[in-house]
Amino acid sequence: MDKPPALAAGFLSRLRAILPPEAVLTRPEDCWAYGYDNSRRQSLPQAVALPTGHEQVARVVDACNQYRVPLTARGRGTNTVGATVPLQGGLVLSLERMKKVLEFSPENRYLIVEPGLTNQEVQAIAGSRGFFWPPDPTSAAYCSLGGNLACNAAGPRAVKYGTPRENTLGLRAVTGAGLELRTGVRTSKGVVGYDLTRLLLGSEGTLAIITEATLKLTPLPEATQTLRAIYRSVLDAAEAVSKIMAQPIIPCALEFIDGNAIAMIRDHSACDLPDQAGALLMIEVDGPREGLESAAAKVAEAAHNDGLLDLRIAATRQEVEALWQTRKALAPALRKVAPKKINEDVVVPVTAIPDLIEGLNRLSAKYALPIINFGHAGNGNIHVNLLLNPDSPEQSRKAQDCLDEVFTLVLALRGTLSGEHGVGLEKRDFIARELDANALELMRAIKRQFDPNGILNPGKLLPPG
Q1: What number does CATH give the domain 9-94?
Q2: Does the pTM exceed 0.90?
């Protein structure tokens, strides 16, 4: 990639007039930390701005428009698809210092906050009054709210409570054209105009920069029941998932681990899994304390089939932790075996999970690459992990060829290429397989309307026209 042109002195002067000196970084050694994310891609920004409020963001966007400076918004850099890597250099707008709580209305069940708070900080604020915000990515302790909104990132609870699109009432934002707007409502119902809130959620910073969010809160459940079910095969586990999701008690988490993942856990940690274990489900049921045991029993009944090897319901906190230990052992094992693995998140209909895993096993054998699969079974969101050494040119080539076939398989099963990680750069060139030409051109037209000068997160999400 050609080195981007130097930023105009006038632009830097304008930036320093908007922000205090310590909020504008220009030395390469200071900027490098803002040039990469969890995709392992990196590109050096020429400057970094650290605003503390909406007005500063609006003025920075206006300056970028005037000088045609590429602008990449960033939270905490946990994204795995390169969505926050500044491909064209320019300015990174880090929202990490925008952490104010603007309004908390427990009576109306909403919370208005800035995007720099971490997901865990949002949960603590809501929890202080008996509520929670349902999206719960695995990186909740570190990932920012703004990043969650930009990628529509959810987590295990999405199976019952939905994603940010179902749990965000409204936004305040600055478009790529520098226009300030408010979207959505502060009520539980509202149908005035187009739904710009849901349009911006998941747009990965290509249309506007979110500066405030009105979050819809949910009361904390009184109690939770945890179950672990072990099956002889993926087919047996998928049959159980279908039955569980077809009965009235919707679990708040329904997590899946395939046989390859179980084998890895067994090799790298102590666990009490049967030798014949081919798949595992972790299930949580929440709700009022009264009647919860009955609800868990109904879910357990739905989980039974001829392939069930073992089913346990935790009765104490210690037993809950013991049941989750198997799932928690997976991440350390993966880091130990393949610290530079490729992690893709795809979604297929629940009934297609066995065909997906079978197809992935075939690809694993074809390319001589281990593939470990786990994820949110209740909505068919499977994390596909290709284990490789990316420093080996041969393995890198095989992994890219394998990934191409993985996406082909997912679409053949009527699935989608991303459930919560987003598109960014890693999947950008594949989405024309999922979206038709008319849909893509309409999206490009929307992008031009919001961002006529093309300054916001250029080169991401949409393939070139």
Answers
A1: 3.30.43.10
A2: yes
